[in-house]
Amino acid sequence: MSLYIKIENGRAVNHPALEENLMKVYGAIPSNYEPFVRAEKPISDEPDDQKFKKIIGHVGYEKVDGTWTDIWGTIGHT
């Protein structure tokens, strides 16, 4: 399953799209779409006995080594 993400002014917009869906709609991959690879959500490294745990959340998309991917980060504690 190949994914692509729409790029406007050097920034990813919206969410990744399946290659097959883009092909059905446009007949080809539009020039303003670039390859995208999903990055798994990391697991908090806080020990289980901690009173508070880090909340890991999706913070956006970034181009890494020529391919767009998910960026995950700590967005708070529980």
Protein model, in words:
This protein is mostly beta strands and 78 residues long. The protein has one domain (3-77). 10% of the residues lie in helices and 53% in strands. The protein has 1 helix and 5 strands, in the order ββαβββ. It has a 5-stranded mixed sheet with strand order 2-1-3-5-4. The longest helix has 8 residues, at 19-26. The protein is elongated. The mean pLDDT is 88.
User: Regions with pLDDT < 50 over 5+ consecutive residues?
Assistant: none
Alpha-beta classification? mainly beta
Number of domains: 1
Query: What is the β-strand count?
Result: 5
> Strand order of the main beta sheet, please?
2-1-3-5-4
Largest sheet: 5 strands, mixed
Binned strand content: over 45%
Helix residue percentage: 10-25%
Number of helices: 1
Q: What's the overall average pLDDT, rounded?
A: 88
CA radius of gyration? 16 Å
The gross shape turns out to be elongated
- The arrangement of helices and strands along the chain is EEHEEE
Question: Termini, distance in Å?
Answer: 35 Å
Top keywords for this entry?
78 residues, mainly beta, five-stranded mixed sheet, 1 helix, 53% strand
Q: Which helices and strands, and how do they pair?
A:
Blueprint lengths: L2 E6 L2 E8 H8 L6 E5 L16 E11 L2 E11 L1
Parallel strand pairs: 3-5
Antiparallel strand pairs: 1-2, 1-3, 4-5
Summarize the structure.
It is built from 1 helix and 5 strands, in the order ββαβββ. The protein is mainly beta. It has a 5-stranded mixed beta sheet with strand order 2-1-3-5-4.
